[in-house]
């Protein structure tokens, strides 16, 4: 008993020592790295341009943390080459600072000298790089971004038409008050509409270095709304065009929100070499297995008026078979889709088997042709943004064999066969409709 | 003989699992990816099998000398002086391993999290914690390992599950990486990754018999092998071979990449907790074992003064390593590649000598 008590007393002494020391260590461990939340300014968007007086022009957007923020809403973009004085740099609760610097890290130090808080990049959700940089070669910028300890690989990565400065200036919370929330919801729509891909910094970096594929990035642009014509100015001749047949910044629309995500920038290694419009992006994403659903307008077959309005959904994952036994790779792609008709044609009865097959064949052929077009275009550019090469890796036993095959060069000669499986159903609320007058 | 207290198989198992798997949080996966490419994920499986075979042979050695620890067996087989030298070499290797592990931990922590904290501060806090836990002896340490094991395993599996959104099965191809020959060679060399299981054999004399050591050791190796293989597989699936070699702390990067909608993202601070606890248990186990070997060689019964001295030596030795390249490419690489010698080769050699010289202990196994 006495021995037990002595043991307990000794044990308690150690426990006290342990608790005191642990508490001290835990409390003090924040000494050097302790940062009050109020001391920081959380950057939400980073724009990168070529500087006028140095290598980098860094433009950052951050919440101004003012209770009465938003006094100057309404969009006051400079619209020029960026960095013009006399332009309002605080919009709807967000402030913007832009400066020229030799590198990202030094630029952040310079920012700290001009912002009364410590700059923190850990909440940076959007990284925008100008098309000009993308065309010249992006690797130096991407290396600095990817190796920055605060920045995440999951940050949304985009290429801006025009300067990134202009893009950030036009970027304001159009709905609600949070830019971050808006972006997170916005980019998630990629897989449901398909007009732009969902590209992250990490994903871009991986594809940029890949020996078996090339990278892509979403294109962002500011729209000056000049494509939006008055009814009397337009050239509509009664023929419907695909909704996605526009490039970024040219969508015929008008709104308080100037910016739009639209289309895809194609890269060869670290250089942007071309841009896809919204429609092409949809077929690209279909091939990459990144499109879950989309509403598509298919030109009607002969003898039928108007367009076929189609709701497409992915039925199963793509089946891709790559044969590398010959010098030129042979690729067989099967895309499995299900669709539903969203409009009615008096000439066609979807309930009728032969009519339905006729419509199915028309839609299937249209989708296949568009996919083949985009593949041909990419082959002629010498880039594989479809990740076919990644599927080909299983044909090789060792890395040396894979590298020796030199996929990125061989893809130009690739023979690609596309098979689209599409089953249509009637999915409208109306079982049957007749002509306007019964 | 030093009494190390009483604890069950589970406690011993989790101590070894923590000691072995802590290195997964650091640079080892990246180094393996650089050397082996996509085949890096099954190398831990092969290494684990080799380690299992080696440990089985060490158990045969322990069976010949029931009730004795590894250091005592060395003295019996090689004689007191030579045996002490061999034990000292094992102790020296363990302490060098400890220096490298703490340096690596400090560098990675400094790189990712505590960027403004000076090296001495991180290392001091860590070494002081290690010394305090060591004061409680092996029993305190294994019980701590057991308590935290649930959180560590649950956290680890959660991490792998949440990161699965970034897995790409194409990344495991070409399946043989940079060649099967290279994979096999490194599987043998890297069997030292599981070498911390030797801790059980050092304390075998104080534990509850050879069967206890065997059961705990084999179970620990199987669990560690499964955890290592799973984490290497997750890493290879997340990063293709041309990227994986660039990442300093793959598991931490993996936790940073978790992004499941607006509500489940930026959860790496939780992972950080597991990382630090596992490393603390691992380093303390190695530290305590090296102190114990020293005390056994010089027949010192009171370890506490030695623990303090050893802690001060550790603190200053860890400060020597100045950067991540130094600790990764010089220290860690070296210890992983030669580690099989003190951990497995020397005990197996001792077994061979004891068989040749027909040395065995007639003493009854401790119940």
Describe this structure in words.
The complex is a heterodimer of chains A (438) and B (367). Chain A has 2 domains: 241 residues, no CATH class; 160 residues, GMP Synthetase, Chain A, domain 3 (2-Layer Sandwich), CATH 3.30.300.210. Helix content of chain A is 31%, strand content 24%. Chain A is built from 13 helices and 16 strands. In chain A, a hairpin with a 7-residue loop joins strand 12 and strand 13. In chain A, helix 4 packs across helix 8. Chain B is mainly alpha-helical and 367 residues long. Chain B has one domain: Amino acid/polyamine transporter I, CATH 1.20.1740. Chain B has 16 helices and 2 strands. In chain B, a hairpin with a 3-residue loop joins strand 1 and strand 2. In chain B, helix 3 runs parallel beside helix 16, helix 7 runs antiparallel to helix 13 and helix 13 packs across helix 14. Chain B is globular, with a radius of gyration of 20 Å. Chain B starts with 8 loop residues before the first helix and ends in an 11-residue tail after the last helix. Chains A and B meet through helix 1, helix 6, helix 8 and helix 12 of A and helix 6, helix 11 and helix 12 of B.
How are the SSEs placed, and which strands pair?
The complex is a heterodimer of chains A (438) and B (367).
Chain A: H1 2-28, E1 40-42, E2 45-50, E3 56-63, E4 90-91, E5 94-101, H2 104-114, E6 118-120, E7 126-130, H3 131-136, H4 139-146, E8 156-160, H5 164-170, H6 179-188, H7 190-193, H8 201-209, E9 216-222, E10 259-268, E11 271-276, H9 278-287, E12 293-299, E13 307-314, E14 319-323, E15 330-341, H10 353-381, H11 388-392, H12 399-405, H13 407-410, E16 415-426
Parallel strand pairs in A: 1-6, 2-7, 7-8, 8-9, 15-16
Antiparallel strand pairs in A: 2-3, 3-5, 4-5, 9-10, 10-11, 12-13, 13-15, 14-15
Helix pairs in contact in A: 4-8, 9-10
Chain B: H1 9-21, H2 28-36, H3 43-64, H4 70-78, H5 80-112, H6 119-135, H7 137-162, H8 180-189, H9 198-202, H10 210-238, H11 241-244, H12 250-257, E1 259-260, E2 264-265, H13 268-297, H14 304-320, H15 324-338, H16 340-356
Antiparallel strand pairs in B: 1-2
Helix pairs in contact in B: 1-7, 1-10, 1-13, 3-8, 3-10, 3-16, 4-5, 4-16, 5-6, 5-13, 5-14, 5-15, 6-13, 6-14, 7-13, 13-14
């Amino acid at each position: 008993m006495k021995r037990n008590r002595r043991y307990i007393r000794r044990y308690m002494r150690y426990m006290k020592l342990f608790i005191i020391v642990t508490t001290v260590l835990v409390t003090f461990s924040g000494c050097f790295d302790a940062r009050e939340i109020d001391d920081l300014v959380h950057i939400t968007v980073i724009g990168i341009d070529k500087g006028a007086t140095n290598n980098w022009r860094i433009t950052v957007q951050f919440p101004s943390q003012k209770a009465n923020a938003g006094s100057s809403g309404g969009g006051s973009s400079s619209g020029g080459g960026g960095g013009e004085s006399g332009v309002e740099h605080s919009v709807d609760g967000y402030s913007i600072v832009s400066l020229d610097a030799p590198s990202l890290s030094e630029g952040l130090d310079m920012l700290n000298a001009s912002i009364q808080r410590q700059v923190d990049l850990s909440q940076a959700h959007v990284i925008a790089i100008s098309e000009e940089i993308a065309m010249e070669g992006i690797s130096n910028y991407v290396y600095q971004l990817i190796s920055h300890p605060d920045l995440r690989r999951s940050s949304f990565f985009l290429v801006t038409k025009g300067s990134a400065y202009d893009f950030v200036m036009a970027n304001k919370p159009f709905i609600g008050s949070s830019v971050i929330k808006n972006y997170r919801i916005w980019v998630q729509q990629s897989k449901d509409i398909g007009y732009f891909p969902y590209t992250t910094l990490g994903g871009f970096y991986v594809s940029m270095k890949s020996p078996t594929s090339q990278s892509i990035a979403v294109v962002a642009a500011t729209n000056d709304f000049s494509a939006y014509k008055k009814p009397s100015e337009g050239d509509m001749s009664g023929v419907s065009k695909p909704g996605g047949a526009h490039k970024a910044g040219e969508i015929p629309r008008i709104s308080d929100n100037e910016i739009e995500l639209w289309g895809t920038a194609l890269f060869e290694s670290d250089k942007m070499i071309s841009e896809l419009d919204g429609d092409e992006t949809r077929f690209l994403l279909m091939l990459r297995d990144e499109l879950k659903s989309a509403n598509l307008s298919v030109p009607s077959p002969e003898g039928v008026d108007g367009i076929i309005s189609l709701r497409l959904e992915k039925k199963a994952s793509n089946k891709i078979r790559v044969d590398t036994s010959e010098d030129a790779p042979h690729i067989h792609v099967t895309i499995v889709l299900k669709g539903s008709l969203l409009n009615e044609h008096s000439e066609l009865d979807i309930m009728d088997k032969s009519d339905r097959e006729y419509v199915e064949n028309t839609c299937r052929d249209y989708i296949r042709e568009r996919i083949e077009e985009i593949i041909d275009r990419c082959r002629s550019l010498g880039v594989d943004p479809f990740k076919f090469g990644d599927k080909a890796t299983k044909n090789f036993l060792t890395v040396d064999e894979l590298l020796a095959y030199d996929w990125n060069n061989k893809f130009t000669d690739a023979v690609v066969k596309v098979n689209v499986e599409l089953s249509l159903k009637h999915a409208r609320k109306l079982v049957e409709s007749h002509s306007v007058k019964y | 003989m030093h009494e190390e207290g009483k604890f069950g198989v589970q406690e011993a198992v989790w101590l070894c699992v923590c000691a072995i798997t802590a290195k997964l949080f650091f640079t080892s996966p990246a180094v393996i990816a650089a050397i082996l490419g996509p085949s890096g994920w099954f190398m831990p499986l092969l290494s684990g099998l080799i380690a299992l075979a080696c440990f089985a042979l060490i158990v045969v050695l322990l069976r010949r000398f029931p009730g004795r620890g590894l250091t005592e067996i060395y003295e019996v087989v090689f004689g007191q002086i030579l045996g002490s030298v061999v034990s000292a070499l094992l102790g020296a290797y363990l302490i060098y391993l400890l220096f490298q592990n703490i340096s690596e931990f400090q560098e990675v922590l400094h790189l990712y999290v505590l960027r403004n904290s000076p090296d001495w501060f991180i290392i001091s806090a860590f070494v002081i914690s290690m010394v305090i836990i060591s004061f409680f002896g092996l029993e305190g340490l294994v019980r701590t390992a057991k308590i935290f094991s649930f959180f560590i395993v649950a956290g680890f599996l959660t991490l792998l599950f949440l990161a699965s959104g970034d897995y790409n099965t194409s990344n495991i191809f070409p399946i043989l990486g940079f060649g099967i020959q290279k994979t096999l060679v490194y599987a043998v060399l890297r069997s030292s990754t599981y070498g911390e299981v030797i801790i059980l054999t050092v304390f075998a004399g104080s534990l509850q018999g050879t069967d206890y050591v065997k059961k705990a050791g084999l179970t620990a190796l199987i669990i560690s092998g499964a955890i290592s293989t799973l984490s290497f597989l997750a890493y290879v699936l997340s990063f293709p071979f041309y990227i994986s070699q660039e990442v300093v702390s793959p598991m931490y990067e993996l936790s940073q990449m978790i992004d499941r909608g607006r509500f489940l993202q930026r959860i790496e601070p939780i992972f950080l907790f597991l990382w630090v606890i596992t490393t603390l248990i691992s380093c303390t186990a190695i530290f305590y074992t090296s102190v114990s070997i020293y005390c056994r060689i010089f027949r010192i019964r009171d370890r506490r003064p030695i623990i303090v001295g050893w802690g001060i030596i550790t603190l200053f030795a860890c400060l020597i390593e100045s950067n991540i390249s130094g600790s990764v490419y010089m220290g860690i690489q070296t210890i992983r590649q030669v580690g099989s010698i003190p951990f497995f080769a020397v005990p197996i050699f001792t077994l061979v000598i004891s068989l040749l010289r027909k040395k065995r202990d007639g003493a009854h196994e401790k119940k």
